[in-house]
Design brief:
Layout: E1 3-5, E2 12-15, E3 20-21, H1 43-52, E4 63-67, H2 72-83, E5 87-89, H3 98-105, E6 113-116, H4 124-129, H5 131-151, E7 157-160, E8 170-175, E9 178-182, H6 202-222, E10 226-229, H7 248-262
Parallel strand pairs: 4-5, 4-6, 6-7, 7-10
Antiparallel strand pairs: 1-2, 2-3, 8-9
Helix pairs in contact: 3-5, 5-6
């Protein structure tokens, strides 16, 4: 530390530790204002601090359980949560039994959130061949998990439901006992239960409606913070291209790639082409 003093009164006019001029009554302008200059850190130090810094997020240190964590959406969600600092568990117990659902949460204290992504589903052909299994397995998995979350006092449950649970269309009475079909271009969550799902996906759609209804009932009776998220058709890196299990976009991508590879003159896509889809 060094001081600059006034010769007449001995007052410290500048303190290098404090980094500014104090001045005195005899000559307050004798010493120019000097900014405090800190020693510079090396670029290597700054890079190391940045690389190993753990930014605080809303998920930092939180215990999170993800069912279906090895699936297409699950893998992306697990990576995102871990990148945000969450402690993510991916139990592999069979949720089709209540004991399996309870094992999923056994020995875990203070679970902040359960993401329920596990499901049994596939494409249109798979739905046509397995409607009872799809309806039963998805329904009981959702109900068992909600009951286990209630008994284990989980703070929040987020379940994924499918857009195929939305109604196929609406009908308007035009008189004389006749009805005309009204297609809605845009649907909101208030339309979720207004009419049956399309026949081709009814088994899956009704099972997901059961999950949405059960979540609201558990919240109503037990105060369980259970909510449902309904994404549009999912696709992207890591998606299954199994012809029996993939959805519309994955199936179309596969067909066009195979057609280009094998020099097919045309590609056949199912459906009339009239329905509006959101990708």
């Amino acid at each position: 530390m060094s001081h600059f003093q006034c010769e007449q009164c001995g007052t410290d006019c500048f303190d290098s530790n404090r980094g500014y001029t104090t001045g005195c009554v005899h000559h307050p302008a004798d010493v120019e204002q000097v900014p405090l200059i800190l020693p510079k850190r090396s670029i290597q130090q700054e890079i190391m601090e940045w690389a190993f810094a753990t930014p605080e997020t809303e998920w930092s240190g939180k215990l999170v359980v993800v069912t279906g964590g090895s699936g297409f959406l699950g893998r992306h969600l697990v990576k995102h949560l871990r990148d945000q600092g969450a402690i993510v568990m991916e139990p592999g117990y069979d949720l089709r039994s209540l004991s399996g659902a309870n094992q999923t949460l056994n020995y875990m204290k203070s679970v902040s959130c359960v993401f329920h992504l596990a499901g049994f589903n596939g494409g249109v052909q798979f739905n046509a061949e397995n409607p009872a299994d799809i309806f039963y397995q998805n329904t009981v998995m959702g109900l068992n998990l909600l009951e286990a979350c209630r008994t284990h006092k989980v703070k929040k449950v987020v379940s994924i439901v499918a857009s195929c649970a939305y109604p196929e269309s609406e009908w308007e009475n035009i008189g004389y006992g006749d009805f005309c079909e009204i297609k809605k271009e845009v649907m909101s969550e208030y339309d979720f239960l207004d009419g049956p799902p399309h026949d081709s996906v009814a088994c899956h759609g009704y099972a997901k409606r059961n999950l949405q209804l059960a979540s609201s009932f558990y919240k109503q009776q037990y105060g369980l913070d259970a909510v449902c998220v309904c994404p549009t058709t999912l696709y992207g890196p890591g998606d299954s291209l199994d012809p029996q299990r993939t959805k519309v976009l994955g199936a179309m991508v596969r067909r066009f790639v195979e057609a280009a590879r094998d020099n097919f003159p045309s590609v056949t896509c199912w459906g009339s082409g009239k329905p509006l889809r959101e990708f």
